[in-house]
Write the structure tokens for this entry.
Amino acid sequence: MQVNQAHYSTPQFSVLSDDQCEMIFRGALEVMERVGGRFFNEEALELFRNSDALVTDDTLVKIPASMTLRALKDSPSKITLCSRDGKRDVHLGRNEVYFGTGSDCPFIYDRETGERRRYTCNDVYDAARVADYLPNIDFFMSLGLASDVQHDETYDRHQYFSMVSGTSKPLVVTAVDGEGLRDLYEMEQLIVGGEDEFRLNPRFAVYIEPSSPLAHGEEVLEKLLYCAEKQIPAIYTPCPSAGATAPATLPGLLVQSLAESLQGLVLAHLKKPGMPFIMGGVITIMDMKTSNYCYGAPELSLSCAALTDVSKYLNIPMFSTAGCTDSRAVDEQAALEAQISIETAFLSGASLVHDVGYLDSGLNGSLEMLVLCDEIIGMVKHLGKGITVNEDSLAADVTDQVKPGGNFLTHSHTHKHYKQEFYFPKLLDRHNVETWRAQGRSTILDHVNKSLNNILETHQPEPLPEGVEEKMKQIIKKADEKAAEGKKG
């Protein structure tokens, strides 16, 4: 859905002016030139040595502004992600906003016992089915980290299989390393029909996270370079924590985060210009009382919205964060923090907004939270439609026909417009108190659980194409066997 455009009659929201965006950008360029970043990958270092960059102290790379400007010039401003049926559902461009889950939470609350336990492949599959059903969830990340696999080195293949089996929506995937990403890419080819088709209609983007401050690990760079080679959309997204792994000031946090993303962009450009690149990050603060990385803090929403302003200034799609909370349960705190972040992310015009469904500062992926946030997103999207003012909507003629003392309920104008003008909630209760009492005094969480139970009991996703499942399992089996051999060696 497009937002923040005056001719679409939508609300306007920004944090930074163009001059401030330029200051943040220039600050990032200075950090890249003066401070540099550490790159722990020999292919990456060789690419930098053969460029205008300065490689010192074995792994430290300082990048001149001219290289960054060239990389930005060749970076596409629009990226499309497709659903399994080939529909180009997600258009990542200026002020086009899409919401989805996050990835790799280690824990989930068991729906039968209520106890916290480790995520399983079946939990990922259930999360995929829920996301597949919910109308306001546009893309799917795994939400949880599949723990019930024989080898940690191959969890990503099993996790991807659960994801693609549970939803036909566009995906954002994680991979252990370059080899894991190659297997995911090979598995995806079984669905899309080959590399050429994937380049034109990619079905997933890859989440890649450098280490703050200003460090890029071996496996991280393997994945980035493979994405550049194959032209796979890459989300290069640092997660700095203000006051801990980044400066305590929000402008300093923005400068460092942008520098870390742009360092990845320059490297990808050296490998193969024009890779579909998405910047962003989970940029927030460390709570100085608890040392927690905050997912519900207002600083997260504010800094992500500010970085979205910078992304639009640079014409790069933005990966933002919302629908998450520091609360341990789906409660009033969770709803409050999720609503603030969702509304801010939407009105800022971020491209991909992830982590919908996170509890406990990103440690617990909750299906209940996902269902609740779907309702919040629906309301925020309705808010984002704004108000269209024209002769028909002004309704002066209609008011003249109804006359003072009349009513509009039976007028054709009402029947023509109310379905588009009004928001119809799925979970919220608008009954009077007598009806509410008669129906059992149900709460919003009662409605959430009823809706979730219905989804899990009845929703069946579109099955994989015939023969694909078995071929995917063969790829996974080979990876598991290789991991087992490595442990024996």
Observations:
- The chain is about 45% helix and 10% strand.
- The chain has two domains: 6-15+72-384, 391-421.
- The domain at 6-15+72-384 is CATH 3.20.20.480 (TIM Barrel).
